[in-house]
Amino acid sequence: MDTQTAERLVALNSDFYQNHFSSFSATRSQPWQGWKQCLDALEQEWTPLPTSCSVLDLACGNLRFEVYLHDSLPSVDFDFHAVDNCDPLAQSATRDLDVHFQCCDLLEPLLSEQSPDPLGETPRADLTVSFGFLHHIPGEQHRRKFLQSMLGHTAPGGLVMVSLWQFMNDPARTQTVEAANERALSHLGLPALDEGDFLLGWQARPNAYRYCHHFSSNEIDRLIGALSPQGELVSRFSADGKNNNMNTYLVFTRR
C-alpha cells in the first residue's frame, strides 16, 4: 500500500471515531469473552500474582479493559497508562478509575517511519495491551513494527496481549462487508486496497466508514515469527462472537 492511501485511511478512521464516538461507545459496554483467557494466561505466567503492576493500554477506547482488569484482580494494585487519539471516547468511560490518559496519535509516527520507535515517550510497562486496534493499521509492515514497539515498551518478563480481528470468518457478513467496501471505495475515490483490507459501514449511517483489516492465519503466523527475537508466544487462541472465531488473541512474554 502506498503511503498516501495509508494516510487517507488513517485520517478516515480518526474522523469516524471523532464523529461517532458516542454510538460506538454504546456498543462497547461489556468485556470481551477472550479477556478471560488472557487473564488465565497472565495468572499462569505470573505465579504468584504481583502485588503491583503497570499497564500500558494502546488505543484504549472507553477504558473497558481497565475496568475489567481492576474488577477481576482486586488484589493487584494497577498503575494504568492509557493512550488513544479520541479524547471524547476515553471520556465516555462508564467508571471513574485512576488512569493516566494520554491523547496521542499512534499511527502518524508509524507511517512517517522517521522514528525507530513509533510509541515514542509512552512508558515501559509490566503488561502492554492493544485490543481492537491492530486491524486499523494499514500495511503488514506497519502492523509488524507496531507489535515490535509494544514489546520494546514492555519490561523483561512482562506480557504483551493483542487481539487480531477476523470479521470475514462470519459467512453471514461477507456480502454486506463486500458491498459496503465497494460503495465506500467509489464514494471516497480510493483505489482497490490490499488483500484483507475493507472499508466497513456503521449502523446503516450514510457515508460512515472506517478502515479495517481482516487477519488471515498465514499473516498471524508471519507476525509471530517476526516477533520471536523479542517475545516468546505463550498463548494463541480464538474467541468472541457466536462461534468464538471473531478474534485471534496472542500473548507474548518479553524475553
End-to-end distance: 32 Å
Element order, helices and strands?
HHEHEHEHEHEHEEHEE
Shape, principal axes of CA atoms: globular
Q: Report the sheet-strand fraction.
A: 25-35%
Helix segment tally? 8
Number of domains: 1
- Helix share, percent: 25-40%
| SSE-based structural type | alpha/beta
Point out poorly predicted stretches. none
Number of strands: 9
Please give the CATH architecture: 3-Layer(aba) Sandwich
CATH class, named Alpha Beta
Spatial order of the strands in the main sheet?
A: 3-2-1-4-5-9-8
The radius of gyration over CA amounts to 18 Å
For this structure, what is the CATH homologous superfamily?
A: Vaccinia Virus protein VP39
| Average residue-wise pLDDT | 95
Biggest beta-sheet profile: 7 strands, mixed
Topology:
Layout: H1 3-26, H2 34-45, E1 52-58, H3 64-72, E2 77-84, H4 87-91, E3 99-103, H5 108-112, E4 125-130, H6 140-152, E5 154-165, H7 171-188, E6 197-201, E7 209-213, H8 217-227, E8 231-239, E9 247-254
Parallel strand pairs: 1-2, 1-4, 2-3, 4-5
Antiparallel strand pairs: 5-9, 6-7, 8-9
